[in-house]
Design a protein that fits this description.
Length: 193
């Protein structure tokens, strides 16, 4: 099998950008939605999926209108749950606690939030359910990093070393698993800020 194109598009700039916006349902700006539609313009997906959070879902809806591809919603593509920190500016979180989180989000998850392996597990399930067809997913930076961990075998430090600004596009060539224990794998085909 020759694999299939998987495009992961981070949502555009939301209202309140710069905060730890995990499950907070921040609305996207009009410019953020337009930037996502622009990034998706020539991708030619057959499948269009978005996180259920407004900043991704509304961009997905606009892309669906522009491309004629029906949108499916999958909450497994949500951002990491920042728990008690969700919606806060980084400066409003105790500095050492935030530094420990950035250093090791598995061991030092936000209070009441999601650890790294939980995010990777749910994104892995979403990837496992993908059809081998050209696919565009409008999602979040954390979920994109989790996809890199699942598909490329990157560890958490490697995934967080990649800058994923608002409305960036990460394109992958994915080879599905065999259904007998072999996991899907991928190569990065491009990263477009």
């Amino acid at each position: 099998m020759s694999g299939f194109a998987l495009h992961l598009l981070r949502h555009g700039e939301p209202e309140g950008a710069g905060r730890l916006i995990g499950l907070t349902d921040a609305l996207p700006t009009a410019a953020g939605i337009a930037a996502c539609v622009d990034q998706a313009r020539d991708l030619g997906p057959e499948v269009l999926i978005a996180s259920d959070l407004s900043r991704a879902r509304l961009a997905g809806e606009a892309i669906g209108l522009a491309t004629g591809v029906p949108l499916s919603i999958d909450p497994r593509w949500r951002e990491l749950d920042f728990g008690a920190w969700d919606g806060l500016a980084p400066g409003d979180v105790e500095g050492p606690a935030l530094a420990r989180f950035w250093d090791d989000p598995e061991v030092h998850a936000p209070p009441g939030g999601e650890c790294w392996s939980e995010l990777v597990r749910r994104v892995s399930g979403a990837i496992g359910d993908l059809a081998a067809r050209p696919t565009l997913i409008v999602t979040h930076a954390g979920a994109m990093r989790a996809a890199l961990a699942v598909l490329c075998g990157f560890d958490v430090r490697q995934t967080w070393a990649i800058d994923l600004p608002y409305n960036c596009l990460l394109s992958l060539r994915v080879w599905p698993g065999d259904g007998l224990g072999q996991r899907p794998t991928a190569q990065i085909a491009g990263l477009y800020p």
